[in-house]
Amino acid sequence: MLRLLQFLPKKCSALTSHRGFFAGSVNGGVLRHAFRTNDDVNKDDLQLSLDDSISAATALWNKEELLSRMKSLLNCSQEQSEILYKANKKALRVFAPKLLTDNIELLRAHGIEEKYIYDNPRVLSNPTDELTKKLRLLHELPAVDDFKMLSPFLKASINAIQHMIDVAKQETIAGGNRINYVSERTGTDTVIVTKFFASNIRIYRIALDKFTSNLEICLQHLEPADVVRHLSVLAYAPASIRERLAALKNSPLETIKPWMVRVPDIALSKSFEAVIEKGKQPVFKDNVTGIWFETYVIKRMEALLNCSEETAKSIYDKCKGFVSLVDNIEFLLEKKIRPEAIVKHSLILTTKREDLHQKVATLETLQCLRNLNDVIPLCTLKVYQLRKIVSTLNNEQLGPGSTNRIYYFADSTGFPPSEVTEQFARRTFMFRLPKDSFLENLKLFQQHMNREDILADLWAFKYSPGIVAERIERAKQVRGKKLMPWMVRCPDVVLEKSLQLTKESGLLLGENETIVEYFCKRLGFDREVANSIILKAPSVRNVRITKVKKVIDYLLDELDYQPQDIALNPRILMHSLQTTKKRMNQLKEIGCRPKSLIIVCKSQRQYDLFVKEWVDSKERIKKVKQYG
Q1: How far apart are the C-alpha atoms of 465 and 450, rounded to whole Å?
Q2: Cβ contacts of 350-353, under 8 Å, gap ≥ 24
Q3: Helices 78-87 and 63-74 meet at what angle, rounded to 10?
Q4: At residue 403, what are phi and psi to the nearest 5 degrees?
Q5: Tens of pLDDT along 73-89?
Q6: CB-based contacts of 607: which residues, under 8 Å, 6+ apart?
């Protein structure tokens, strides 16, 4: 054992000195070398040649040295060299780092631009001899004026490039090769054509006659730029291309793209009727089939509803292309529902066929039903909701004609029953209100409010008649006849604030005085000039008269502006008085009194720009006077 231990160190020391053989080896490898015969040892321990020693040296380049060499060869930034390194990191596990620098020198020697290397860094991962062979083959392509335009082909395999060169040498075509031919026929730059040829290099497997004839056929029906982007279309049989293009030309599609030529036959022969009959939302594997289905449904809707294409398209989009659109329309028309009602309440078309049939059948059981069109908006509700509502309406009798609350509300206010039903469907609590509360509140609202306001704000019906009467009385004392439903349901603080503002406005305007008449009295204008102010800024009507008074007082009394200044720029009346005062004080500090109030009404950016220009102008004048 002692002799073995004495033997191992000598062998290990001698063997590990040759880095070319044992760099990175583990202990087990050292032991295997230690127990070899002398013949094996002599065979493995041959002296390295000069070339091998150079390769071994380059294998020891660290990352920083490699980046430095690439940077000097390409004259690139540190970031670009890092990108090149990361893109080829996998190749560096197999090949020596010198592979990258050798390939860079090789590409630059053949005129390949640095930009191509930056855009396609993986090209440096090709073995140098393989890259050399690709470049040599590409040099053999006939009728090439600028070799560097062929750089996209470097990503193709050697066999594909070899086949392309062999075909190009044997065939006779205008322009010298297929790239130039397509460029001339489509009017596209050769560099762009080359890019798409490189991504569709199998185009050279198409026979020349088929290639030229298919190109002519496609250019007759398609845009040249689209043909260049989809060169794979040229691989199809000419008869198939003609047939598909003819079918697409007769289709309702507005534009035809080359990819439509190569989609499956489902795009031409699929029966949309069969899809609709299934009642299951279709899922199409290709875009063109989905477009055809949408166009088919829209055309059917146009014919059924006698509407415009825009209306049918808006309904289709609103219903998200629901598969049962056509079936539901046909069913509703059979039930004598007017097309106008279907268009207005198009969301009911998104209901499943079975559910829609069930909903209509439930509505037909409604007592005192005058016309199904009156209650069709209720179909937007769920089936169970509709059943409960119909049951509730059938169990109560309103008015002398034993009608339900939909017709009672419509007859009392003068609205069409369908409009009342539409609002009730959005506010289903109207069907749950106690009958006495509903009748009494409706009577109170009709006595003091406009019918349009009542129907637009049904939330006030949820309050008890006592609270409604008390709120109406409080508001009536201040606002007179101008009452709104929101005054019944708003918090007391909001109501008091509103009544206080109304009271202040009433004190300023007086009884039955309008803002036009206030302008006449306060600014000294006749009625025609006051009306022109309103026309110039219609939003002034919506500004509280108390705010208008404060702004006018500030401008006329404190700043000594004239009524004509306000008439020229009535927008000042709509601006915050606080902002107006702040801007006026700032302008006063820099010595500016604007002749027109328009600058005070500008946006913050425009106002700041005006102030800056004013200050700069004063500085320039000051310097001229100082050095003049």
Answers
A1: 18
A2: 350/319, 350/320, 350/322, 351/324, 351/379, 352/279, 352/324, 353/279, 353/324, 353/327, 353/328
A3: 120
A4: -100, 175
A5: 888 888 888 888 888 88
A6: 583, 599, 600
